[in-house]
Structure formats: structure tokens, C-alpha cells
Design brief:
Helix content: 40-55%
Shape: globular
Number of helices: 18
Number of strands: 9
Distance between the termini: 23 Å
Strand order of the largest sheet: 2-3-1-4-5
Strand content: 5-15%
Largest sheet: 5 strands, parallel
Amino acid sequence: MPSLTRTVRQYGVRAPDPPGDATVGHTTRKSSTVSDQLPPKPVDAHAVARGLASEPAPEPVFVGGYPRSGTSLLVSLLDGHPQLLVLPEETWFLKDVSRRAAVSGPEALAYLFDRTNLRHLDPARPPDAADLAGVGIADYDGFPYGRLRDRTTALFRDSAGAPPDVLSSLGLAFAEVTGAGPRRYLVEKTPDNEFRIGAARAWWPRCRFVYMVRDPRAAFHSHAAKTRNGPAAARELPVETFVLHYARSLGVGLRYIALVPGLSTLVKYEDLVTALEPEMRRMSRFLDVPFDPSLLVPTKLGRPWTGVGSGGEVGDQVVAGRIEAWRDGLHGSDVAYIETFLGKAMLFLGYPLTTGLATTGEFLAALRGRLPVRWQTLRAMASLYKPVGLVRRHRGSSRKGR
């Protein structure tokens, strides 16, 4: 396997620029230049369907990463590109729908449209408070949700009925009902996609994978703020559980980047908001599509999108002012716990620590939580660090290796 350190550094990881409070300013596109995928007038569905049926389904691009790492921002920036067909809401295809499709295609389709975030496209079912907290549901007024469901069902019925046919049918139907026409790539974003990229590559050997990463302190702060500002029933995320799940996600994401570097890349949230145009130009090179000015303005279905961060709405521009909001929002003990277990990975990715790296004794002494969580955390740390080469394997160097 190629060196993970060399591969990740070559394909997208660099030390972040000094954080600042400035907004990355961009001129909002005029309505005449917005690539609005919603047709201004009814489309002859049967005529379009006949044309699309002869077109191959677009190759998938899967966007993954730990939740609250900026995946929604990235796909909103990809939304307006003329060669990309971007699904505006999470389909949970890899982690859930594909498994159900292996058992029952019709039940998987019902789950896709009734239970996943794709349901937010239905103007007749406005999102509730639990859906809105920290997410930023876009304006889907007038979207032909019923037609999307019917066409997806019909296309899947005419397919071989295998799990990947669910996503392919959805992509073709989405292009039809939005009037987008044939596109090169179908972009699907669901946090945790990284855990099923192996299955995706078995179905689509040339599919692309984009892994979003964010300073774990900022990601945890965003989680905490979402819980604090969300409905009363929302559960607080313990820092011990967060560290365990973040380590698992990062380890898997980096490993797939190392295994297939030409088809995988890493995007740092901090780079995206402080150096937007260079990052999106790099993304266009990775996808092998021409750079388009639409890549600099966040939209959903071609309409301006208002993002929602840990502090509420952040407007329809890319902002960098809250990169280090965690410094005032997290308790010192939570910061120390995160840095104790994820410190090496943070330095590797270019995130400076507030304290030095923990020794082996401090590392073990800091373990807390229920016994299963402690054991799983140790396993996650071993899985994350050993392949990266940050844990030395010869005896007598445990302190230096740390």
C-alpha cells in the first residue's frame, strides 16, 4: 500500500493559512447567470425520458466525512456546475438504502423517499424543528417531488433491480424532472459515506470519493451548539463518544485516499472557507471538469443557499470568521480530551494544539467513559495511527513515537 503520509500530503493536505475573521467576499451571481436546475415551465416528461433512457447514468461522486465537517457547504458549491448533477439532500444510499435494496427494491425506494433527507424535497411536507436545527433546509417550493418519485420507481422497475440501480435510477429521474439533461457526474453527499466506499467501488470502479475534514475541536463545538439550540429532545454528544467516532471516520477516510489516490481526495473545511477559489479550482482538476464561476457561490437547485452553522444562519456567502469559535465555546476539559487522543492526527493535518502531545501514561490515564467505549477508543486509535506511521513499532521508543 502506498505511504499514507506521502499520499495525503500530495493529494490535498496542507498547513492552513492563519485563521482570520474576514469574510471571503464574492459577488452574488445575478439571477440570469444562476444555473437554475428547476425548469421555468413544464417539461414533456415522456420526451425527456426517451432521451435520457438512452444516456448512461452519470458516474457517482460520493462526498463523506464526519458530521458537521462542511460537507453541505462543499456540495452547495458544486451545485451550479454544468457538468455536475448534485443531489441537494442526503440519500443515505451507501450506508442504508443500498443494504435495504439487497433485500427488497420496492421497500428500499419507499425508505429512500419517506425516511431519508430526500423527503425534504417534497414541498407538501415542510421540515419540522428537529430537521431545521443546524442544517439549513433550502427552499424547494414548486419542486416536482411526485414526478421524481414516480420516475425513479419506473426506471428502477425497468432495471436489473440491483442495489446500485436505485441510485442510478434516482440520478436519471432527477436529471429528467429538473430539466438538467445529461451530466458527467452525480454528486451524493452523506456523512459516513467513507465507511461504505469499498462497496461503492465494487459497483462503480471509477467512482470518486471526496473526504471532508475539519478541526475536531470545531466539529465538536458545532455538535454541542446544534444540540444546545435544537429541540429539547436532542441528545447531548459526550466528548468520549465524539472522539471515538471521529477517529474511526478519519482513519477510514485517509485509508481510502491512500488506496486509490487518483480517485479520492481530501478537502479541509478551513481551506475551503479561507482560500475558496484555489480549493475549488483544485476540486475541478480532481473531477477533470472545467472551472466554472458557479463553484464560488453556494446554491441548492441553482437557488441561493443559506448555510446554518453552530451559531445559526451564516448567509449565502462563504465565511471564515468562526473557524476558531470553539476557543470560547468549549470547556477546557473537552479540548484537552480531544487533543490527548487526536493530537497527532491534528498536527498531521495542520491543526496546532493548545498543549503538547500527551505521553503514553497521560494517554492511558485520560481514558474515561464506559468500559466498552474505552476499549473501542483504544482500537480506533490503533487503527488511525499505525497505518499513518505516527506510532513507532520498535521497542523503547513509545514516548518519542508519541
